[in-house]
Design goal:
Blueprint lengths: L5 E6 L11 E9 L11 E9 L42
Antiparallel strand pairs: 1-2, 2-3
């Protein structure tokens, strides 16, 4: 992973019915990394993109996203839980 956003989930045409053409992407980039292949990184930024291709309806104001994490606890101890912050609220239609 580099310092530039790259797609880690490609949900092109993920919808059904009139929403068949809608797209959903998750992008990620490494933050403040040093070392080979992003080793010793301080974090990962994620960006979620929802693209409404139908053009006939607006994005619901009640759209939400939930986040959680899984981490090693048995063999790799001392791994801190990530902090999660919303930088930009959903926008667009």
């Amino acid at each position: 992973m580099s310092g530039a956003f790259q797609v880690i989930f490609d949900g092109t045409n993920i919808g059904g019915g009139i929403y068949t053409g809608n797209d959903f992407y998750i992008d990620a980039k490494s933050v403040s990394y040093s070392g080979i292949n992003g080793g010793n990184g301080l974090g990962i930024d994620f960006r979620i993109r929802m693209i409404n291709q139908s053009g006939s309806d607006a994005t619901d104001n009640n759209t939400t996203a939930s986040f959680g994490e899984l981490k090693a606890t048995s063999y790799l101890t001392g791994i801190q839980s990530p902090s999660i912050a919303t930088l930009n609220v959903w926008s667009g239609s």
